[in-house]
Amino acid sequence: MKIAVVGQGNVGTHLVHGLSAKHEVTSFGRNDRVSNDFDLILVAVPDAEVLGLCEHLPSETLVAHTAGAVSLPEGSPRGVFYPLYSFSKEQALDWSKVPLLLEASNEPALATLNFWRKT
After folding, report:
1. pLDDT 10s digits, 34-49
2. Quick one: CATH architecture of 2-118?
3. CA-to-CA distance for 65 and 80, rounded, in angstroms?
4. Cys staple from 7: which of 12, 46, 79, 105, with CB 3.0 to 4.6 Å?
5. Is pTM, for the whole model, over 0.70?
């Protein structure tokens, strides 16, 4: 799976490290332009920036954010991929032990998020 991670803070850094072993992952800063040649775009930026940033991402690509206090972005396919965990760049992380809460705009989007959760 080809995945873009937007956000290079604590959560974004751990997402990139955790996904890179099994997927082709590209890391983007919040101001970088992201093309539509990804299967999944994960947005890991501060809550106040999530919805505004999601509006500018490709509408045909599944976009999911990691903010637990932010609603599902407008459009389809869209989702929420919320890790119930406190992150630090300096601390190693075992993703298999991180509880994940998922929400999606449709069944195919939810299936994709569930697939990623298991990898």
Report:
1. 999 999 999 999 999 9
2. 3-Layer(aba) Sandwich (3.40)
3. 5
4. 12
5. yes
